[in-house]
Design brief:
CATH topology of the largest domain: NinB fold
Strand order of the largest sheet: 1-2
Strand content: 5-15%
Number of strands: 2
CATH class of the largest domain: Mainly Alpha
Distance between the termini: 17 Å
Helix content: 40-55%
CATH architecture of the largest domain: Orthogonal Bundle
Order of helices and strands: HHHEEHH
Radius of gyration: 19 Å
Length: 155
Amino acid sequence: MSGRKWLIRNELQLEHFIGDVTDLFKKHKRLLFEFPEVGGEDRSMDQNALFHVWIKQYAAHLLKKSPQLVATGEMEGMKRHAKIMFYKDTRNEWMLNKIVNPKTGESKNDVRSTKGLSKAQMFEFMEWLQAMAATDGLILESKGEYQRILEEHLS
């Protein structure tokens, strides 16, 4: 089984994974799987840095200004907008966080910080962001670890 990887990002890919595992089990009558922890702690600084570069470039493109002139509030607005649009397009529940008012008990869903995303989740979000920027006429370049993960995924 060495060398075989699955990236599961939706129900259809999960069904294919389950089918492949079922076929392997029927053939070999035993399987051993080892899965890494999935959580934000495996998200790298390289991924995080590239995400912030991309967000600044995208905001600058939409605002028609130099990236150096993009204000903190504009960056935060761009991040929030991107997360909301990602959720609308993908319906990935992991992009949401339930916020509760401790005084009133009222709650609502809101987009979450990318700090808690796993490497795979962040990869999916950045892949989506790159495609979305392209539809707006901006090419966001893949670099560093993100590029390595992308190449592994495509091979």
